Amino acid sequence: MNREKLIHVPNGWAMLAVNIVILLVSVAVFVAFIFSCIEADQSGTIPNFYLLVVSLLVMGLGIFMCCGHFTLQPKEGRVLILFGDYRGTVRDSGFHWTNPLNTKMRISLRLRNLNGEKLKVNDKRGNPVEIAVVVVWRVQDTAQACFDVDNYHEYVTVQSESAVRHLANSYPYDHGDAGETTLRSGVEEVSRVLQEQLHERVSKAGVQVEEARVTHLAYAAEIAGAMLRRQQAEAIIDARQRIVHGAVSMVQMALHDLTEQGVVELDEERKASMVSNLLVVLCGEAEAQPVINTGTLYT
Asked: Which residues are within 8 A (CB) of 103 and not within 5 positions of it... i.e. 6 or more apart?
């Protein structure tokens, strides 16, 4: 694999002054050629064409050297290549100059976001789910990004999709075994594993993953209705369990207080009848309609 090699190039402002001097020299030589033409016309001799040749050569050199100027903003890099040979990478921001024959490839070193598309994959139990992630990444090694892969943008996109599919196949959507991490409940662990897998995959392209998060997670459309009914049933069962537990506690408290304070003495049969009535009132979904007993407790 290629490795980035940092280099420092001449200051652009200093070389700009040199280029201006070279262009001024070419103008001065051309002016000298004009004067030689005037003198030759007056004396009937041949002008000094060597001055014209030197003027054109010097001017061409000045224009050629001006092509070596380039600028770099903060968090940018320029990869310099001379006739197919990697010369190095410039990371210092500012105005610079390099050999005009160098090919200058600009690479952004800023953070970038990859907002992945929704993918339909199977979770660990084979249920089809929809999942999408967002990845924050940046170029860490410019040499690897330029030379080890054909297109590092496309490489990051493809490897991100592959990592997401592998991640979804490794965890159930929900309702895992005791202590098992699921895609829905273990958000932090899933994000950490996704980031580690992505970093391992894209590091070959000189890319570093700063963060990876799941942004969309849902059952696929074909099973979403069935899973919703299951979740509703589980919610109803859980609510019923809480209601029954609370009702039993209230009945127990009522019987204990009645006995403790001596309000009324009930035999086991009447206690069972009272418990039954209280549970119906406390656990029933509809409002209870009381029946007034005008007789005795035993009639």
From this structure: 80, 81, 82
Is residue 128 within 8 A of residue 121, CB to CB? The reply is: yes
* 192 vs 200: CA distance, rounded Å: 12
Q: Read off the pLDDT of each residue in 138-150 and give the average, rounded to a whole number.
A: 92
C-alpha–C-alpha distance, residues 148 and 203, integer Å: 11
- Return the H-helix or E-strand segment holding 217: strand 207-219
Strands in 73-174 per DSSP E: 76-82, 85-90, 94-97, 103-108, 112-115, 119-122, 128-139
Contact 72, 142 (CB under 8 A): no
Strand partners, 115: 134
Assigned superfamily of 112-219: Band 7 domain (3.30.479.30)
The residues near 246 (Cβ < 8 Å, ≥ 6 apart) are 282
Task: Name the least confident of 150-154, 221-225, 266-270, 279-283.
Answer: 221-225
Structure tokens of 243?
Answer: 């209601």
Residue 250 pLDDT greater than 70, yes or no? yes
Q: Is the pTM of this model over 0.85?
A: no
Nearest Cα residue to 76 out of 29, 110, 50: 110
Residue ranges of the chain that CATH labels 3.30.479.30: 112-219
Average pLDDT on 181-204 reads 87
Query: In this predicted model, what pLDDT tens digit does every residue of 219-248 receive, in sequence order?
Result: 776 655 556 666 666 666 777 778 777 777
